[in-house]
Amino acid sequence: MANYSVRNQVAIISLCSPPVNALSSDVRRGILDSLKKAEQDVKVAAIVICGEGRTFCVGADITEFKSEFKTFPNLFELVDILESSPKPIVAAIHGHAFGGGLEVALACHYRVALSSAKLALPEVKLGILPGAGGTQRLPRLIGIDSSMQWIAFGDEYSAQIAANIGIIDRIFPSNADILESAVQYAQSIIGKSLINRRVSKLPVKDASKVSHIMEKYKQIVGKKSRGAIAPMVCLEAIKHAALLPYVEGMKKERMGIEALMGSDQSKSLIYMFFAERQVRNWTIPGTGINSKNTKPIKVEKVAVIGLGTMGRGIVLSLLKAGIKHVSVMELNKTARENGLLFIKNILEGYAARGTISETQKRSMVDALKPVSNFEMLKDTDLVIEAVFESMSIKKDIFAKLGQVCKPSAVLATNTSALDVDEIAMVTPKPKQVVGMHFFAPAHVMKLLENVRGSKSSPQVIATAMNMGQRMGKVTVLVGNCHGFVGNRMFRHYTVETDFMLEEGAYPEQVDTVLKKFGFAMGRYQVGDLSGNDIGYRMRTKFEMTNKQQPPGAPERER
Ligand SMILES: CCCCCC/C=C/CC(=O)SCCNC(=O)CCNC(=O)[C@H](O)C(C)(C)COP(=O)(O)OP(=O)(O)OC[C@H]1O[C@@H](n2cnc3c(N)ncnc32)[C@H](O)[C@@H]1OP(=O)(O)O
C-alpha cells in the first residue's frame, strides 16, 4: 500500500508495507494510484516517493514472484510510467534501496539519500536479474563497467559511494529527517527541465568499450561465480544497454528475467534466502523456549583458546563483528606467533582493499589481547575453545575454565563432532556450556552451527545465537549428536567421493569435477584445509564395530 499527502506543492507518496516495503501488487497499485492523483492535482508541482518505517524499499516482493508478470502494473510497467511523469519525482532513500526499490529510484528524476542508506541490485543472489529496467538504466547513469560490478555480483554500496559515481544527487546526514529534507529538495527543483533527468534517455558513456569490459567481467564472473547462470545473463543484458536503444534493451532484459525466473538455480537461491531468515527464529523443541522469549547475556569481552586454523578465523570473525576485547590464548609459542601474524596480515589485506578503514584496522589490532594463562580469563563473558579435536584435551581446558571463569561466562566449544554434554560435565556449571561449531576458514564461511547440550541454559543458547548473528553468520541451532548436522550431511558426500577413489580416480580429478559443477572447493581440498586428521578421528568414533563402540552403544556414539 502507499499513503498520499500534499505538503507545500509537493505530493508525498509513502510506501507502507512493513517490515521492508517490498513492492507487492498492492504497493505497486498504491504508487500508481497516488501518482495519478499527484499528476491531476494542479497544486502539486513535484512528487517525493519515500518509505515508511525502517527502510525505503527492498525491491519486489519475493513471495509474489509467481504472479509478478500477471498483475498490472508489474514492476517493469511501473518504472516506465514513473519516469514519463510530467512532474519531477524525487526518491527519498533511507535504510535500503535494493533491487526493484533501486529500480524505482532510478526511474525517478532525482535521488536523495541519508548517508547511512545502502543501495544494491542484489537480484543475482536470487538467481535472477534486475528485471525492472535496472540493467538498462544503471549503465546510462554510471557506465557499463560499474554497472557490471554492481549487477553481476549484487553487493551493497553506501549512499556515499553511490553519490560519488552519480546515482545519488544529494546526501543528507544520517540523523536528518529524510522526508523533510527530500520535500525541501523537491521544492528547489520545481520548474527545472526534465530533459536530462529521464535516465532511459541518456547515452551510455563507455558504450564504445563494451566488448573489452564484457570480456573482463566474463573472466571474473567465471572464476567468482563458477556454475551460476544469472551473472552471465546479467552481463549480456547490460551489454545490450550499450548496443541497443532503451526499448530494445528492455526487451532483452525481459527475455533474460523470463529465462531465469523459476529456474532451478533461482528456486534454490530463493529457498536459501528464506531458510537463512527462518533459522533466526530458533526454538528448543517441546519447551516453549524460543528466540522471541529469551534474552542473550551481554557480551563485551570474548576469549578464543587456540590459534590454529579455526582459532584464527574465529578471532577475525569476532574482530569484524566489532568486539573490542578479544583475548587470545595459545600456549605454543610458534603457533601463537604464526596465528597473530596471520590475523594481522588478513586485517592489512582488508585495509588495503578498502573493506575496512585504517582506523578500523588499528582498533581491531588494539582489540587483540594475547593472554598466557587461564587466570587472565576470569572476567571474560564468552570463551570459545578452538583447540585440537581431542576429548581429553578439551575436558582439561573446560575443567580449568570452570574453575576460573565468572559464573555467568558462556563456555563454548568449537568441536566438530564431540559430545558437548561430556565436555560440559567436567565444569561445575554445565548449563553455561554450548557448542559453537565454525567452518574453515571461519572468517570466510558464513555457516555457524550452535550445538544445544542437554544442560545448556536458554540464555546461553540465546547468547551463542546472538553472537553468531553479530558476526554476520547464518547461525543454526542444532542438537547434540555425533557430527551434528553439517558433518552428518558432509559424511554422505565424502562416502561417495571416497568410493570414486576406490574405483581409481585421483583426489584432484574428483575436485576438478566438483569445482566445475560450482562448488567453491573440492571435497579433498576441504579435507586438506580442515585437516584430514579431524576426519580420521571422527570416523574412528563413528565406527560401529570398533573397540570403543560395543554393541548397544548409545545412538549419539553411532
Ligand atoms: C515483468 C517484470 C517483473 C520484474 C520482477 C522481477 C524483479 C525483481 C527485482 C527485485 O526486486 S528482486 C528482490 C531484490 N531484493 C532483494 O533481494 C532484497 C532481499 N532482502 C534483503 O536482502 C534483506 O531483507 C535486507 C534488505 C538486506 C534487510 O535485511 P534485514 O536483516 O534488515 O531484514 P530481513 O530479516 O532480511 O528482512 C525482514 C523481513 O522481510 C522479509 N523480506 C526481505 N526482503 C524481502 C523481499 N524482497 N520480499 C519479501 N520479503 C522480504 C524477510 O524475509 C524478513 O521476513 P521475516 O518473516 O521477518 O523473516
Topology, element by element:
Blueprint: E1 2-7, E2 10-15, H1 25-40, E3 46-51, H2 75-83, E4 89-93, E5 96-98, H3 100-107, E6 110-114, E7 118-120, H4 134-153, E8 157-158, H5 159-164, E9 170-172, H6 178-189, H7 210-224, H8 230-243, H9 246-260, H10 264-278, E10 283-284, E11 289-290, E12 301-305, H11 309-320, E13 325-329, H12 333-353, H13 358-367, E14 368-371, E15 382-385, H14 391-404, E16 410-413, H15 420-424, E17 433-438, E18 447-452, H16 458-470, E19 474-479, H17 486-502, H18 507-517, H19 523-530, H20 532-542
Parallel strand pairs: 2-3, 3-4, 4-6, 5-7, 6-9, 12-13, 12-15, 13-14, 15-16, 16-17, 18-19
Antiparallel strand pairs: 1-2, 7-8, 10-11, 17-18
The chain binds ligand LOW37U6P.
Describe this structure in words.
- It catalyses: a (3E)-enoyl-CoA = a 4-saturated (2E)-enoyl-CoA; (3S)-hydroxydecanoyl-CoA = (2E)-decenoyl-CoA + H2O; a 4-saturated-(3S)-3-hydroxyacyl-CoA = a (3E)-enoyl-CoA + H2O; (2E)-hexadecenedioyl-CoA + H2O = (3S)-hydroxyhexadecanedioyl-CoA.
- This is Peroxisomal bifunctional enzyme.
- It is a single chain.
- The protein has 558 residues and is α/β, with parallel strands linked by helices.
- Helices cover 45% and strands 15% of the residues.
- It has 20 helices and 19 strands.
- The strands form 4 sheets. Strands 14-13-12-15-16-17-18-19 form an 8-stranded mixed beta sheet, sandwiched between helices. A 6-stranded mixed beta sheet has the order 1-2-3-4-6-9, with helices on both faces. A 3-stranded mixed beta sheet has the order 5-7-8.
- Strand 15, helix 14 and strand 16 form a beta-alpha-beta unit.
- Helix 4 packs across helix 7.
- The radius of gyration is 27 Å and the shape is globular.
- The model has no long low-confidence stretch (mean pLDDT 93).
